[in-house]
Amino acid sequence: MDLKSSIIEAVTELFQMFGLNSYFKEEIYEKHQFIGEQVNVLIGLTENIKGNVIIGFKKSTASQVISAMMGGTEIKELDFMAKSALGELANMALGSAIMKLNTEKVISLSPPTVVVGEDMSLTVSGNNSTKLIFNLNDDIFNIIIAID
Amino acid sequence: MDLKSSIIEAVTELFQMFGLNSYFKEEIYEKHQFIGEQVNVLIGLTENIKGNVIIGFKKSTASQVISAMMGGTEIKELDFMAKSALGELANMALGSAIMKLNTEKVISLSPPTVVVGEDMSLTVSGNNSTKLIFNLNDDIFNIIIAID
Predict the structure, then answer these.
(1) Residues β-bridged to residue B35
(2) Quick check: helix, strand or coil at residue B20?
């Protein structure tokens, strides 16, 4: 399984674990520059896969996901705990995706960074980058994968 | 030498190589949440040091640095090439800082991601995070170091 397929599978399964119904919708090839979402969770990959993965949510979608992770607690604002939960989600999703690659090669993840703002642009390095769009209930979120 | 001291030394030397006169000014302890600058370059660290380093510039300062890297070429806008140069700068600075640690332990760097925008907030994980402020001519830039 390649990294893209394993991320799609891992994210779908993880969201399902939290009672969230998500599915992969489409892939958009955008090369190196992306418009950021309101909430972006970045994780770097090193060793045998070098790159970055960025999960992007609208604030409302992020709140919905965090609420599901916290057993339905209403999320009024994206405080530190809420952002940490999103970081942990990304960590779990990528950890699971790497397991699915079923390789003995070492692939390491950097700790997540959560970037919140409006109208931001994200520039990734690497030769091979893509944006995966997922449906989540009536909403969407996306995952940028950039591999060197 | 610890990571903080080695980053300060590496950045100062690197900027000097490009004819830029920078010096470390002060350290601000801000725990896990930081106000982003207009231009932020993120690099993740894995293996024996897990964390993230974020170099933050105002757009005008970033342009000044890129111009110096490109032998004085005037930078009118932060296009892909300009942002790639900043990513490469961060890569060089951290590579050099890790050499200065003089350890045989493996420390890996993820490829840089450049995030440009206004009024963004950055949330890092880890128990130990700090912001280093540097002077650069009449301006300042900063480096956030967050270690798990």
Answers:
(1) B121
(2) coil
CA distance A37 to A43: 15
Distance CA B85, CA A87 (A): 28
Inter-chain residue contact B123 with A87, CB threshold 8 Å:
yes
Contact residues, B window 52-111, toward A, CB-based 8 Å cutoff: 52, 54, 80, 83-84, 87, 108-111
Q: A87 Cβ partners below 8 Å, 6+ apart? A: A41, A111, A112, A113, A114, B123, B125
pLDDT of residue B103: 92
pLDDT (tens digit per residue) in A23-82: 999 999 888 999 999 999 999 999 999 999 999 999 999 999 999 999 999 999 999 999
- In chain A, the N- to C-terminal Cα span, in Å, equals 18
Q: How close, in Å, is residue A53 to chain B by CA atoms?
A: 10
Q: Determine the distance in angstroms separating the CA of A19 from the nearest CA of chain B, rounded to an integer.
A: 26
For residues B90 and B112, the answer to whether their CB atoms sit within 8 Å is yes
pLDDT of residue A127: 79
pLDDT digits (tens, 9 = 90+) for A105-132: 999 999 999 999 999 999 998 878 999 9
Apex A131 CA angle, A127 and A134, nearest 5: 155
Question: CB within 8 A of A63, min separation 6: which ones?
Answer: A75, A78, A82
Cβ B132 vs Cβ B145: under 8 Å = yes
Name the residue type at position B121: S
Query: Is any Cβ of chain A less than 8 angstroms from the Cβ of B115?
Result: yes
Cα–Cα distance for residue pair A2/A44, rounded to 1 Å: 17
Q: Which value does ipTM take for this structure?
A: 0.95
Segments in chain B forming alpha helices (H)? 3-17, 59-69, 80-101
**CA nearest neighbour of A133 among A37, A68, A16:** A37
Q: pLDDT at position A21, please?
A: 95
